[in-house]
Amino acid sequence: MIEAPSLLQSSLSIPPDHFDACKAQDIPTVGNAAGNTLDLLDLTGAPEPPGPLPAGFTPKGIVAMVFSCLSAFLGIAVISWYGAGEIGKREPGMGTRDAVTGDENKDGAVDEDENRSEHENRNEGAVVNGGEK
Known about the structure:
Layout: H1 5-11, H2 16-24, H3 59-84, H4 96-101, H5 112-122
């Protein structure tokens, strides 16, 4: 609700191109919604609102709902499949480096001696306790 319409009308102005657009579409710029300036309560000739929405589900809505549910279930299945894909391929606690590099024997076991020597080689030049090795 506008509390001071006369103050608002005195401070605002409508650009002329807005009036030109209304005139081009034969939309009245004075009066009520029907363009009636004599009886403002008479809405004869005013534009009609769109019709009501159909009751219940339409066939188009049903198809959209079915495909939405199917894609949701497919997405959940793919996420579950992807998440469970690595289960059972490695023993717990083997570490991520072995899983990434693939340091395995033919039987699938990780060669501990090879891992130990690689770990020692990496830490050979490391500085520990402020300069002591």
